[in-house]
Amino acid sequence: MSPLLCRTILVDHASRRPLWDAQAAAAPHQILTPLDARPFAPWDVSALAAVYQIGARPRRLIEVLPALAGLRHGKARLCFSRDQDHVLVIIEKRERTPADVAAMCREFEPLATLDDGSDAETPWQVPLVNGSMMTAAPRPHSSQDLPPGLRTLVLVEDDPMVRSVCQRILQSRFLVFEVGGSLDALALAERIAFPIHVLVSDISLPRMDGVTLAHRWLERRREARVLLLSGNPFAAPPSPNIAFLPKPFLADELVKAVTHLLEPAVAAVSR
Question: pTM higher than 0.85 for the full model?
Answer without folding.
Answer: no
